[in-house]
Structure formats: C-alpha cells, structure tokens
Design brief:
63% of the residues lie in helices and 10% in strands. It is of the alpha/beta class and 436 residues long. It has a 5-stranded mixed beta sheet with strand order 3-4-5-7-6. It has a two-stranded parallel sheet with strand order 1-2. Strand 3, helix 10 and strand 4 form a beta-alpha-beta unit. Helix 2 packs antiparallel against helix 3, helix 2 packs antiparallel against helix 5 and helix 3 runs antiparallel to helix 4. The longest helix has 72 residues.
C-alpha cells in the first residue's frame, strides 16, 4: 500500500470515528430531551413580548370549543367526551411551560381518542385523528420544536406518526383514515418550529459573539495602551540608570586616594547599572510592535510639563480655542508624573478636537502639596462630530496612567453638554537626583 493510500485511509478512519462518536451521542440526547418533565418556558418575543403566548391560548380555546362539538356529534353529551376535549385543549396551555410533558400527554390523548371513537364513529368520518385533534397536536408539536434539539423533534414527530399507524393497524372497524394527511401537518409544524429555533439560537449566539468581540477589542486596546506606556517609561528608567552608571564611573576621580574597597563597590554599581540597561533594551525589544515609529522618533526624549505650552499652541493652530492656566506653587515633578500629566492633557485635547469640533477647551493644572490635579473641560460642540472609527485608546490610556501612579481619573459629560476629565496624580517634589 502506498503512502498516499495510507494517508487517505487514515483520514477516512478519522472522519468515520468522528461520525460514529456523533451518532452515539444522538440516542443519549434524545433520551435526555424526551424523558424529562423540566420546566422550559416559551421565550418572550423580542418585538411583541408575550403577545404570541396570548394568541396560542386563544387559538387553543377556539379549537377546544370546536373539539367539544365534534365529540358531542359522535358521543353525545358524554362526560368522557368533554373530559378528552378539555384535556386536549389543556395540553396546549401546558406546552407553553413544559413542552415535553405536554407532547407526551397530547400523543397519549390522540391514542385514547382513537380507541374511544373506534366503535362509535361513522366509517365516512376521518379517523384516528379528528381535524380539531390534528390542529391541537400540531400546536403542541410546534411549541415543542421551538425549545428542543432537532433530533428530539424528529423522534417526537416519528413517534406521533407511529401511534397513528398502530391505531389504524389495530382498528376493529373500517374508517376513513387520515394518517398521511395528519402527518403532513405534523411534519410542517416540526420543520417550522425547528427553523424558528435555529434562527433564535443563531441570533443569540451572534449577540454573544458580538459581546465577546467588543470585550476582546476593549481588552486589546487596553493592552496596547499599557504597552505604549511601558515603552515610554522605559526611556525614563533608562535615563536614570545611565546617570547612575556615569556617576559610579566618575565618583572615584572625585575622591583623593580612594580605597580599593570604594573602587570595588563603585565598579559593582556601574556593572549592575550597565546590566540593567541591557535587560531594559531586551524588554523594550519585546514591547515594540510592528507599527512603532522608527528612527530618531523612537529615541526622542519623553515630553514633560514644560512642553504643554507648545502642545496648546499646536492645538490652537489647528483651529481649536484653548485656554491654559496653572495655579498653586509650580515646581518640578518626577519624570513619570510629568510624562503622564502631559499625555493625559494631550489625549484630552485630541478627544475634544475629534468629538467636539468648534468647542472651547480649558486646561488647568493645579499644583497641590502632595498631588497634581489635571482638569480638561470642553463646551458643547459647535457642529456635528464625524463618526467614530471604533474603540480608541484615549480614556483607557488616561485611566491606566493615573492608576499606574496611584492616582485617580474621573470623566463625564457636563450639564452644559460638554465633557470634563479630571485626573489627580500623586506628585511629590522631585529631588536633585530626579533632575539629574
């Protein structure tokens, strides 16, 4: 046997095993689906609520009234006829909450009605199922097919038809049999119910998938923003490590006759700083994405609050009215705080230009004793904003930057129709080492 034949045979065996496993699961699914009395209410309609439930009950009552008259023509005012007619009507109402149990009862009632009418029915009247009985059981089958799997519906349909066949085989008198005609209506109800159930399940799964996609997109956006923040902070950390390395290298020359122990410790500090820088570069290589800026932009120094005036001037040059002021005791802050504050203002101004064109924007920095408060508020837009292109990085990035520093960020619409962003960032005064 050639290798090709072996591959084909292996593939065929694999598919055969999968098919066999699937077929072995069918009897179990059917048993679990038909041997249960669990409650399974008919879901509400997305457009009409419980109106279909009311229509089903109304139709069942009308058919039940016609069924009573049908029994009266055959059995007279018999208590047995009234009981059977009432039960056949009641199982339709039961099928709204317990479809499997209702189907079993309806099927049993079809058999009972056939037996009761066998001896007294005129040969020209249809049997074993009456027109009213067919209509009521069709409703029950439809309600069953709306809730159970396709295999269960198929078995229920086959069982219903089989009971009619058994009744006709065991009949003691000749009748105008309607098993074939009744089977057509039952099959139509089963197919319609299965199709509606498939459509409902597909819509539900589509909604769930859309929710998962939205959550995944938001999660990916958050991870991308965290990655960007980590890349920016790398430059800040690398700068400090470089300063430590240089200071450790220069320190022995600033001391007259340094001891060997001091030289050894400073050499160790410098070596550790160099190794830390090497590891930082490796981490940065992992964090870099394909769409990162290249060349000089990648190594450009990270901005601080001293560049806010330049940022505001650029936004004004783009046609946006911006008011900027500082309050409190202006002082140098840690590079991480200054970078985060700058990025928050930058993102807030970008959002205002994108979502509130023609609005007036006010940027305020408040230097407190232990925190820096950043507030950016815009008025209502002067003209409609262009449609959004999807989930952005602005607000998630601002929250991440504030959270990273142990601060807080709040945002929301203003009563005048604008939008406000307020961030409070812990901001201890930068030390001389921080400024180095």
């Amino acid at each position: 046997m050639s290798k090709v034949d072996l591959v084909i045979e292996g593939a065929w065996d694999g598919r055969g095993r999968q098919l066999a496993a699937a077929l072995r699961g069918v009897p179990r699914a059917v048993r679990e689906g038909l041997l249960t009395v669990a409650r399974d209410p008919l879901p509400r309609s997305a457009w009409t609520g419980r109106l279909p439930h009311f229509h089903v009950l109304l139709l069942a009552v009308l058919l039940g009234w016609a069924n009573v008259h049908s029994f009266a023509r055959v059995l007279g005012t018999s208590a047995l006829g009234l009981l059977l007619a009432a039960l056949q009507t009641g199982v339709v109402a039961l099928a709204l909450s317990r479809p499997v149990l209702a189907w079993w009862l309806s099927t049993a009632l079809l058999c009972a009605v056939a037996v009761v009418r066998d001896d007294v029915l005129d040969p020209n009247v249809i049997w074993p199922w009456s027109i009213e009985g067919i209509a009521l059981h069709t409703l029950v089958l439809l309600l069953l097919a709306l809730r159970v799997r396709l295999w269960v519906t198929a078995v229920a349909l086959g069982t219903t038809i089989l009971t009619g066949v058994v009744n006709t085989v065991l009949a003691t008198h000749p009748h105008n049999q309607v098993v074939e005609r009744g089977a057509v209506y039952f099959a139509a109800a089963a197919v319609l119910g299965a199709a509606l159930r498939f459509s409902r399940v597909s819509r539900t799964r589509l909604v769930e998938q859309e929710q998962l996609t939205t959550e995944e997109r938001a999660r990916r956006t958050l991870l991308e923003e965290r990655q960007r923040i980590a890349r920016e902070l790398h430059d800040v950390v690398a700068h400090h490590m470089s300063v430590i390395s240089i200071q450790a290298q220069v320190a022995p020359h600033l001391v007259k006759d340094p001891s060997d122990e001091l030289k050894e410790n400073l050499a160790g500090i410098r070596q550790n700083a160099v190794e830390a820088l090497t590891e930082l570069r490796r981490v940065l290589g992992v964090l870099r994405s394909e769409d990162d800026p290249a060349g000089a932009a990648r190594h450009a120094p990270q901005p601080g609050l001293d560049r806010l005036d330049e940022l505001v001037a650029n936004v004004r040059g783009a046609g946006q009215a911006v008011e900027f002021d500082r309050s409190g005791t202006v002082r140098p802050l840690g590079p991480g705080v200054e970078l985060s504050a700058f990025r928050i203002v930058q993102e807030a101004l970008s959002n205002a230009m994108r979502h509130a064109p023609g609005s007036d924007v006010r940027v305020a920095l408040t230097y407190g004793t232990a925190a820096l408060t950043v507030r950016v508020v815009n008025t209502a837009p002067a003209r409609p904003a262009p449609p959004s292109r999807g989930v952005g990085h602005g607000l998630p990035g601002m929250r991440e930057r504030a959270s990273m520093l142990g601060g807080e960020l709040a945002d929301g619409p203003t009563p005048e129709g604008g939008y406000e962003i307020v961030a409070e960032l812990p901001a201890p005064t930068a030390t001389k080492d921080d400024d180095a």
